[in-house]
Write a structure and sequence with these properties.
heterodimer; A: about 350 residues; mainly alpha; 15 helices; about 75% helix; globular; B: about 260 residues; alpha/beta; 6-stranded mixed β-sheet; 4-stranded antiparallel β-sheet; about 35% helix
Chain lengths: ~350, ~260
C-alpha cells in the first residue's frame, strides 16, 4: 500500500540481483588466466580453512585474491557510485539531464587528481585533491546555473563551461608532465580503467564509496521533496540549502573516490538513473538502491568485456561511452513520458 | 482573534517597490480571496506570508505570533501552499506526492512507514480522488493534479492554506470542482484559506472576505458583501464593469464594453 507497484519493483530487484551474481562469477572466471568453477570453489573453500588449496594452486590464488577480486569489486563499487551520484544530482537539481560528467564534477575531480599526480603526491592526497576539484567544479556550475535563467538548459551549459575550463587545466598538466613516465600514466588514467586496481585502492576508494552509498541510502527519501524544486520543498518544510549541500558533498565524494582510482568513466551516471527510473519509477525510496545495483551490474559487465575483448584489454571508459551515449540518444528520442518530462 | 494578520508588509526586489504597506487579517473557517491585476503583487505577497521572501518592512502574524524567526520546519506545520500548476519533472504517483506532506515532521533520515502511506491514502479518499492513488502525476489532467497538490497541502495538517491561482489552466468544470473542494475543507477543518484568483466571479462565489491589490497596495479589503462593488473592481482593473444579480444568490461580473461574439435573445 505505498503506491510504488511493489510486485513489479520486487521483480526488477530480483532480476538485477540475480544478473549481478551471475556476472560476478563470470567475471571472476574469465580473463587472461581463466579460473574454472571447480578451481574457484576450491580456492574459496581453502580461504576459509576448508582444505589446503592455496598451496596447490599458488598462481590461481594470487590472481584471484590480489588482482581479479579487488578489480571486480572496484568495478561494482564505481558503477554504483557514479549512478548514485547521477541520481543525487538529478534529484536535487530537478533535472533529468544532469550527471556527474555533465555538471563538471568528473572533469573537476580529474583535474584535481591530475594535478596531484603531476606533483607526485600520495594516493590519499590524490583522492583529497580530486574531491576538492569536483566540489569547486559543481559549485561554480551551480552558481552560474542559478544566476542565469535557472532552467534545465542553463545548468547543463554551465556544466559545459566548467568542464571546458577543467579540461584545459588537465591538458596543461599533460603538456607539463614528463613525456616518458608521467604522461602515459596520466593519459591512460584519464581514459578510465580498472586495470591495476590493488587491494589498497579498493580499501581506500572503495571505503569512501561505500560510506557515500550508505549515506545516500539513509537519506534517500529526502530526495523526493528536493526533486519537486526549491520552492515546493521549502513550503513542505525542507531546509533546502542544507540538504542540497549534503547531497552534493556525498555525490562529489563518491565521484572523486572513483575518479582518483579509476580515472574518468562517463555516461554511467546519466543513463543508469534513467533506466532505473523506467524500471522502478521516480520514487527515490526504490530508485536509490536500484540505481546502485543496476550501475554496479552495468560497470561489472563493461569491465569484464573490456578485459575479455580479443586484441587485449581496452580502458573501460571507452566502452561505457560507446554503449552509454547511443543508449542516451535512444532514450531522448523515445523519452519515456512515464518517468520524467522536461 | 484573527488567525492570520499581515501588518504593514513592504517588499522590493530592486528599487521599485512590489508591495508597500499591505495590512489585512483573516479569520479561520473562511476563504479569503486575493484579487488584483497582473503584476499587482499577489504572488509576491503569498511568498512573503509563506516566508520564502523576507519582507523589507512589516510582519506576518499567526495567532498573534510573528513568523519572522521561525524555521522552515515550523512554518510548514502552520502554513501549507498549493503552488501554481506546473508539469513536474519526475512523475511521482499521487500517493508518493501526498506523503511528502509529512517530510517536515519525519526528518531527513526517515522513510515514511505503512501508516503514513495509509494516512495519505485517506486524504486522497477524503477528496474523492482515491482512485488516482497510484497514477503518475504527469499522466493526470490539470484538475486532478491540482487536487493531488491540495491533498498534499492538507496532509501537512496546516492552520493556514495558501493557493496561488489554483484555477489557472483549468477547464470550466474543474475550476468549480477545485474551489468547491477548497471551500468545503476550509469549513470542515476550520482553516484560514487565502487564494489568489483572476476571475472576480469565482471570488464572489467562494470568498467571504476579499483583499484587492493594486500596484502593490491594498486597494480595498474586508467582507465581500461590503467591498465587492463595481466601483472597486473598475478602479482596480481599469475596465468598466457591471455587476448583476443572478439566480441562487450569485452575482455576475461582466465588462460593460461591447462584446463582439454571438448575441443571445
Amino acid at each position: 500500500m505505498d503506491g510504488s507497484g511493489i510486485s513489479r519493483n520486487r521483480g526488477a530487484f530480483l532480476l538485477v540481483s540475480f544478473a549481478m551474481v551471475a556476472s560476478f562469477f563470470l567475471a571472476v572466471s574469465t580473463g587472461k588466466y581463466p579460473i574454472d568453477i571447480k578451481t574457484l570453489i576450491h580456492l574459496i573453500a581453502s580461504r576459509f580453512g576448508l582444505g589446503g588449496g592455496d598451496l596447490l594452486l599458488p598462481q590461481a590464488a594470487l590472481v584471484l585474491w590480489s588482482v581479479r577480486l579487488p578489480r571486480i569489486l572496484m568495478a561494482v563499487m564505481t558503477g554504483a557510485a557514479l549512478s548514485m551520484a547521477g541520481v543525487l544530482l538529478q534529484g536535487i537539481f530537478k533535472n533529468p539531464l544532469v550527471s556527474p560528467t555533465i555538471m563538471g564534477v568528473t572533469s573537476g575531480a580529474s583535474f584535481g587528481a591530475g594535478l596531484a599526480l603531476l606533483l607526485g603526491a600520495s594516493a590519499i592526497v590524490v583522492e583529497a585533491s580530486a574531491f576538492i576539484g569536483g566540489l569547486v567544479a559543481v559549485f561554480i556550475a551551480y552558481q552560474i546555473g542559478k544566476r542565469g535563467a535557472n532552467s534545465v538548459t542553463t545548468l547543463i551549459l554551465a556544466g559545459v563551461i566548467v568542464t571546458a575550463v577543467s579540461r584545459s587545466g588537465l591538458s596543461y598538466i599533460k603538456c607539463k608532465a614528463d613525456p616518458l613516465g608521467q604522461l602515459p600514466a596520466i593519459v591512460y588514467w584519464t581514459m578510465g580503467s580498472f586495470n591495476g586496481i590493488t587491494l589498497d585502492d579498493l580499501l581506500r576508494s572503495g571505503g569512501l564509496i561505500l560510506a557515500g552509498l550508505l549515506m545516500s541510502y539513509f537519506l534517500r527519501w529526502g530526495l523526493n521533496p528536493m526533486a519537486l524544486g526549491e520552492e515546493e520543498a521549502m513550503s513542505l518544510g525542507v531546509n533546502v540549502n542544507r540538504q542540497r549541500a549534503i547531497y552534493i558533498i556525498i555525490a562529489t565524494m563518491m565521484v572523486a573516490a572513483a575518479t582518483a582510482s579509476c580515472g574518468e568513466i562517463g555516461w554511467v551516471g546519466l543513463i543508469i538513473p534513467h533506466m532505473a527510473r523506467m524500471l522502478v519509477g521516480a520514487d527515490h525510496k526504490n530508485l536509490v538502491p536500484f540505481s546502485a545495483l543496476l550501475g554496479g551490474l552495468f560497470m561489472l559487465c563493461m569491465d569484464t568485456l573490456a578485459r575479455a575483448l580479443p586484441g587485449g584489454e581496452v580502458p573501460v571508459g571507452i566502452l561505457t561511452a560507446l554503449v552509454g551515449a547511443p543508449c542516451f540518444g535512444f532514450l531522448l528520442i523515445r523519452r519515456s513520458r512515464k518517468a520524467w518530462s522536461g | 482573534m484573527k488567525t492570520l494578520s499581515i501588518e504593514n508588509i513592504g517588499f522590493n526586489y530592486t528599487d521599485r517597490p512590489i508591495l508597500s504597506e499591505v495590512s489585512f487579517s483573516t479569520e479561520s473557517g473562511s476563504v479569503c480571496g486575493l484579487l488584483g491585476p497582473n503584476g499587482s503583487g499577489k504572488t509576491t505577497l503569498l511568498k512573503c506570508i509563506n516566508g520564502f521572501l523576507k519582507p523589507r518592512a512589516g510582519q506576518v502574524y499567526i495567532d498573534g505570533k510573528s513568523i519572522t524567526n521561525l524555521s522552515r520546519k515550523t512554518i510548514a506545520g502552520l502554513i501549507a501552499m498549493v503552488p501554481q500548476l506546473s508539469t513536474p519533472v519526475f512523475s511521482f504517483t499521487a500517493l508518493q506526492m501526498v506523503v511528502m506532506g509529512r517530510v517536515a515532521r519525519l526528518g531527513a533520515f526517515a522513510v515514511p512507514s505503512r501508516r503514513h502511506y495509509r494516512d495519505a491514502a485517506a486524504v486522497l479518499e477524503e477528496l474523492g480522488i482515491g482512485h488516482l492513488s497510484s497514477c503518475g502525476v504527469n499522466e493526470m489532467s490539470g484538475g486532478e493534479r491540482q487536487m493531488v497538490l491540495l491533498a498534499r497541502a492538507l496532509f501537512q495538517n496546516p492552520k493556514i492554506l495558501l493557493l496561488d491561482e489554483p484555477t489557472a489552466h483549468l477547464d470550466f468544470k474543474n475550476q468549480y470542482m477545485v474551489l468547491d473542494t477548497v471551500a468545503a475543507v476550509t469549513r470542515k477543518k476550520n482553516l484560514t484559506t487565502l487564494v489568489t484568483l483572476h476571475d472576480p466571479n469565482l471570488a464572489a462565489r467562494y470568498c467571504s472576505q476579499m483583499v484587492m491589490l493594486k500596484q502593490g497596495r491594498v486597494h480595498r479589503s474586508g467582507i465581500t458583501t461590503e467591498v465587492f462593488d463595481s466601483h472597486a473592481l473598475e478602479s482596480m482593473y481599469g475596465i468598466k464593469v457591471s455587476i448583476e444579480n443572478g439566480c441562487r444568490g450569485n452575482c455576475y461580473v461582466m465588462p460593460s464594453t461591447e462584446g463582439c461574439g454571438v448575441t443571445w435573445h
